[in-house]
């Protein structure tokens, strides 16, 4: 994911904090606070949400490029309930993909 969805150090810190939270997840407000403590950033909760949405958009774009290159891309699982538990009802999903060249 970091190869094509993460653009800068702030994105990297956000992804790292979300990975540390594990399955239960973490609210954008808490991510913003923790990332601000780690680095000299002035993130608000809506900045974190916006960056996550942008990373998801880039990730979907990259999976489309995989299909154009001849890979078959299958969504292994989706978690539509994640927006209720982690992102205060924002329209965000968690997906796992598998790409293979036939």
Quick structural gist:
With 102 residues, the chain is an alpha+beta fold. Helix content is 51%, strand content 15%.
Number of domains: 1
N-to-C order of helices and strands: HHHEHE
Q: Counting H and I runs of at least 4 residues, what is the number of helices?
A: 4
CA-based gyration radius: 15 Å
- Let me know the number of strands: 2
| Class by alpha and beta content | alpha+beta
Describe the structure.
The chain is of the alpha+beta class. It has one domain. The protein is built from four helices and two strands. A two-stranded antiparallel ribbon has the order 1-2. α1 crosses α2. The chain is globular and about 45 Å long. The mean pLDDT is 81.
Annotate the secondary structure layout.
Layout: H1 9-21, H2 28-38, H3 45-68, E1 72-79, H4 82-85, E2 94-100
Helix pairs in contact: 1-2, 2-3
Features:
single chain; 102 residues; alpha+beta; two-stranded antiparallel ribbon; 4 helices; globular
